[in-house]
Amino acid sequence: MAEEAAVRAQAEAVRRLKHDKADPDEIAKEVAKLLEMKAQLGGDEGKHKFVLKTPKGTRDYSPKQMAIRERVFNAIISCFKRHGAEVIDTPVFELKETLTGKYGEDSKLIYDLKDQGGELLSLRYDLTVPFARYLAMNKITNIKRYHIAKVYRRDNPAMTRGRYREFYQCDFDIAGQFDPMIPDAECLKIVHEILSDLQLGDFLIKVNDRRILDGMFAVCGVPDSKFRTICSSVDKLDKVPWEEVRSEMVGEKGLSPEAADHIGEYVQLHGGLELIERLLQDPKLSQNKLAKEGLGDMKLLFEYLTLFGITEKISFDLSLARGLDYYTGVIFEAVLLQQENEHVEEPVSVGSVAGGGRYDGLVGMFDPKGRKVPCVGVSIGIERIFSILEQRVEASEEKIRTTETQVLVASAQKKLLEERLKLIAELWDAGIKAEVLYKKNPKLLNQLQYCEDTGIPLVAIVGEQELKDGVVKLRVVATREEVNVRRESLVEEIRMRTSPP
């Protein structure tokens, strides 16, 4: 009975770890050990109860959810194509060293794969670093591409808010040496087009520049070595009040209170061209080379955005920092705004739905000769958008079709399976989306009910009389109107009645 005692001791150890909220990986390791011990004991003890669930931070998508997703993907892809982008794909895992050192404090969220006695690999964390690796490896210096694929992060996900451990990213990037701010302005135009097209409600695109941030840190007295860590504190300003960010800077990150207060004066500013002009005259910032360059480019960017007619949705916001280490110039983030109500003067942000920026040094990190390829890009936060649209569909009880079937081939009498199969083959061969019920002699009522349930708009009914007359009875499900259509004209008639208006 020593084995049973060992199992009890191991179970106790697992309970203790859970109670002490130990490291999840350690708990998982001990649980696995416990299950193994139980299995070796045999009998009922070893019958591990099989849990049917998806792993934490992941989900399945039902046909209805996929129909909504496809709608969103199609809107995004057609926008990317409208702007002349090509498409690429890269492996879902990369060499671990490709990903390390690119994500600042977020590096701890990278999924490392178990060593298989060969290369050390990790699941991709985003699509930008693999893109930079692809450019360097293939010596590409000029490309406009989009890439839609899944990425992986060992986050503690809040799945209700559209945050997951496995999720899609939709990226559009322009790589190459071009005149300043023209590609950057196009990226912002793309965000504007997609968010307007998806009708998600009111949104705002916040814009800043890493050079303005770094210049601001320098004139506020932040030591070089603390730039990135202070940057990630500033990045929290959209979620927590300035007081909390200030105490993190001073308390945890060792910044002097004076420097923190200086930063506070700047990061609470947001506006448009007039703010840029004001900062270009700022006695401290205008003396800093980096900040001056950034502000000059920001002014140019706003001039182009004015030509595109989208400045009413753009805000130059000095608190925008975006935590990733590889940004070098313009950075931006699109947020959805909650509709204003009586109690709130300013509309409240309900979270980021797109982000991006310029990263001129990333490709150079991979190139053996350090050759740089300037890049600017945008990533659309498809999961957040999708969860908003899904909630909206739930609330409106809108009926979502999950198939595209145009017509059901039906029969009103028995012994007509052969005729139904002949007719459906003709329709399929002509490119018509058609279905037939998998029964020899289905009742007409059941066939019509199937159309009601699945949203199929037309029924092609074959009957003995129709076969003699060389016609097919075409029934419109919604109005119950029926017409006899000559067999040879049926395809044309179905196309005409189901083509989008």
Brief summary:
It contains 18 helices and 16 strands. With 501 residues, it is α+β, with helices and mostly antiparallel strands. The strands form three sheets. The chain has a nine-stranded mixed sheet. It has a five-stranded mixed sheet with strand order 13-12-14-15-16, sandwiched between helices. A two-stranded antiparallel ribbon has the order 2-3.
Fold blueprint:
Elements: H1 2-19, H2 24-41, H3 63-82, E1 86-87, E2 93-95, H4 96-99, E3 121-123, H5 128-137, E4 143-152, E5 166-175, H6 182-197, E6 203-209, H7 210-219, H8 227-234, H9 242-252, H10 257-267, E7 270-271, H11 273-280, H12 289-308, E8 314-317, E9 330-337, E10 349-358, H13 362-366, E11 375-380, H14 382-396, E12 407-411, H15 417-429, E13 434-436, H16 444-454, E14 458-462, H17 464-469, E15 471-476, E16 482-486, H18 490-498
Parallel strand pairs: 1-4, 6-8, 12-13, 12-14
Antiparallel strand pairs: 2-3, 4-5, 5-11, 6-9, 7-8, 9-10, 10-11, 14-15, 15-16
Helix pairs in contact: 1-2, 3-6, 3-14, 6-12, 7-12, 9-10, 11-12
